[in-house]
Specification:
CATH topology: Lipocalin
Largest sheet: 8 strands, antiparallel, barrel
CATH architecture: Beta Barrel
Structural class: mainly beta
Order of helices and strands: HEEEEEEHEEEEE
Mean pLDDT: 88
Strand content: over 45%
CATH superfamily: Lipid/polyisoprenoid-binding, YceI-like
Low-confidence stretches: 12-24
Distance between the termini: 41 Å
Number of strands: 11
Radius of gyration: 21 Å
Length: 194
């Protein structure tokens, strides 16, 4: 019988466990910026006012078969806001709105995903805007474009006042409604090493 010290047992267990730990991680995806978008629509004086963010980055580890090991982090450059009217975009980066001098980024992070239908999921996480972090649940659908390429489309309705967006004369929700719909499309390919 071979005698094994505690340290040898530990090494032996690590050798057995490491492959299963590696296999447990969800697939890593690389976002394709030119095929991805984040847009928003609010209501001002009874009419829709829309815009988009032209620059954002992502870390995506998502696998429908391994939801417990999936995680997503989206970082939005708030200075990249774009609208049909340049005056509107210029207003949105001011201190009363996004205050991009102090808060240049918005960040969404989720490590909890639940399947709610055919190719339909809910991601529960947090959204940070203007330095304020709040819980947020997004819904999205997945679409396989090829073996190693996929697309996610989803939306969430936010209340701008929850994050302090629209202060001073804009704090009232009569002229500019509180609810803002955010829609996103993320197209990505599977990392060669993932």
């Amino acid at each position: 019988m071979i005698k094994m010290t505690a340290s040898k047992w530990l090494i032996f267990l690590l050798i057995l466990l490491v492959p299963s730990i590696v296999l447990a991680s969800a697939a890593e995806w690389r976002m394709i910026p030119e095929e991805s978008s984040i847009t928003f629509t609010g209501i001002q004086n009874g009419a829709p006012a829309s815009g988009s963010f032209k620059k954002f980055s992502s870390v995506i580890n998502l696998d429908p078969a391994q939801l417990n090991d999936s995680k997503v982090r989206i970082v939005i450059d708030m200075n990249s806001v774009s609208t049909s009217f340049s005056d509107f975009a210029a207003t949105l980066i001011t201190a009363d709105w996004f205050n991009t001098k102090l808060f240049p980024q918005a960040i969404f992070e989720s490590k909890q995903f639940v399947k709610i239908g055919d190719n339909k999921y809910q991601g529960n996480g947090t959204l940070t805007i203007r330095g304020k972090t709040e819980p947020v649940s997004i819904t999205f659908v997945t679409e396989a474009l090829s073996k190693n390429k996929g697309r996610v489309k989803g939306s969430v309705t936010l209340k701008r006042t929850t994050f302090g967006i629209g202060q001073g004369e804009w704090a009232d929700t009569d002229a500019v409604k509180d609810e803002v719909q955010v829609d996103f499309v993320i197209t990505a390919d599977k990392n060669a090493s993932g």
